[in-house]
Write a structure and sequence with these properties.
The protein is α/β, with parallel strands linked by helices and about 210 residues long. The protein has a single domain, classed as Rossmann fold, CATH 3.40.50. Helix content is about 50%, strand content about 15%. It is built from nine helices and eight strands. A five-stranded parallel β-sheet has the order 2-3-1-4-8, sandwiched between helices. β5 and β6 form a beta hairpin. The longest helix is centred in the C-terminal third of the chain and has 15 residues. It is globular. Bound molecules: adenosine-5'-diphosphate.
């Protein structure tokens, strides 16, 4: 099963994709996470990507496509995977078509959230060194300084500042949103899910759509 999670930044793609991947026992492949890892390790790719990501722009297709193709060639991805954050452009979608034939995917799940809610969510988002992600409003006792799951110190992603979020949203509308129409025209299963609501109920809605 090759699945794509699509939606604006802050829609909850990462949160939901992780849960659904665990349920389906396939890897969750998030290009944003992979790029942040490359930046923190200071690899060649990381050095090229860093400033671009801090501005909220897209890393060039050839770099991201190369990174993704290497990842999906690994053994753990042979039975399928969930893509989160890729493809983000028509060029990236074309690379998946070339690699697998057809649309390159079995299903796409679009998570919808409006722009005001996105800005609220992202500006309150914090992460910790163990990869936990939460919102300051959900951890009021700690005011977001420590992870509500493991107690590690937390930080805000460089590209989660309000001005950068607006740029990321603009980039999403211009370059990534057209992929919704692109995949609606292809022979794949296509689901739209409301991304506002309880995390568990959204996971349930996605699982019910995928496994009726
Ligand atoms: P979000 O979905 O919250 O915007 P991600 O973690 O998916 O965040 O991505 C963070 C940043 O990483 C993007 O703003 C972009 O700069 C870069 N990035 C991630 N995936 C891609 C991709 N497929 N193509 C180009 N750039 C990407």
């Amino acid at each position: 099963m090759r699945l794509l999670f699509l939606g604006p930044p802050g829609a909850g793609k990462g949160t939901q994709a992780k849960r659904v991947a665990a349920n389906l026992e396939i890897p969750h492949i998030a290009t944003g996470d992979m790029l942040r890892q490359a930046v923190s390790e200071g690899t060649d790719l990381g050095l090229k990507a860093r400033a671009i990501m801090e501005r909220g722009d897209l890393v060039p297709d050839d770099l991201v496509i190369g990174m993704l193709m290497e990842r999906i060639a690994r053994d753990d991805a042979s039975a399928g995977f969930i893509l989160d954050g890729f493809p983000r452009t028509i060029g990236q979608a074309a690379a998946l078509e070339d690699r697998f034939g057809g649309a390159g995917l079995d299903a796409a799940v679009v998570i919808d959230v409006d722009s005001d809610e996105i800005v609220r969510r992202i500006s309150g988002r914090r992460m910790c060194g163990n990869g936990h992600v939460f919102h300051v409003d959900d951890a009021p006792s700690t005011e977001g300084d420590t992870c509500d799951q493991c107690g590690e110190p937390t930080y805000q992603r460089e590209d989660d500042q309000v001005e950068t979020v607006r740029n990321r949203l603009g980039v999403y509308r211009e370059l990534t949103e057209p992929l919704i129409a692109f995949y609606q025209d292809r022979q794949i299963d296509f689901y739209r899910v409301d991304g506002v609501g309880g995390v568990d109920s959204i996971t349930d809605a996605i699982m019910a759509a995928l496994r009726p």
